[in-house]
Amino acid sequence: MFSNKVKTLVVGITASTLLVTAGTAAAFFSSKPETNNEKASYTVGYDLGYSYNTVNELIDVDMLVDGLKAGLKKNNPDISPKDMQAAMVEFRKNINTKLIQNANELAESNQNNSKKYLYKVEGMNGIKKLNDGLYYKVEENSNGVKPKLSDLVTVQYQGKLPSGDVFYDTFKFKTSETFLLSNAIPGWQKSISQMPLGATWTVYVAPELAYGTNAPANIGPNQALTYKIKLVSSKPSA
Prior knowledge:
Layout: H1 4-11, H2 15-20, H3 36-51, H4 61-72, H5 81-122, E1 128-131, E2 134-140, E3 151-160, E4 166-169, H6 170-173, E5 177-180, H7 186-192, E6 200-205, E7 225-236
Antiparallel strand pairs: 1-2, 2-6, 3-4, 3-5, 3-7, 6-7
């Protein structure tokens, strides 16, 4: 959320801070921070805490604060360096396990929600089915030529999640994207290759025809995606 420079600055203050590597400044304030030092301290604590929010149950805030205070005062730690090192090795393993578990749970939840979303889409007026998991609605028709998979195509598009959140929109910025159609996600290959030049479609793509579990962070795993696509141009790639 904030820059790595802030983390590095604070983590480097003491060995104790480095070893706990997480926290929140909220414990140090009974009211809203006002001075610059208070705000900076809160920012550092918030940033560290936010970094570990997905595994917060692994963090003992009381122990973290005790370690931070001891480190800032240069007091001797309550545990040996050997125990610190061993604890951090185990802690990192637990974090990795928890992150994998969280990712799997999110992927499963998104998959279920995507199925429900596409089932709803299939029953909407004007929806046509191209393949299993791939639907479209003609927003603006055209008699133009359909592109080949080997063509370079230029499109304008808006991408949305089942929640309705927009993750990309070239219409908004009045730009376009040009790419080799055969390099696009399967859902785009199958749909755009059926679009006449100049047409605009809304295309509904199942996760397995989009990004599956390997989606960008702003999309997330196993998301059904909705695209409004305008086919601007098409030409042979060579």
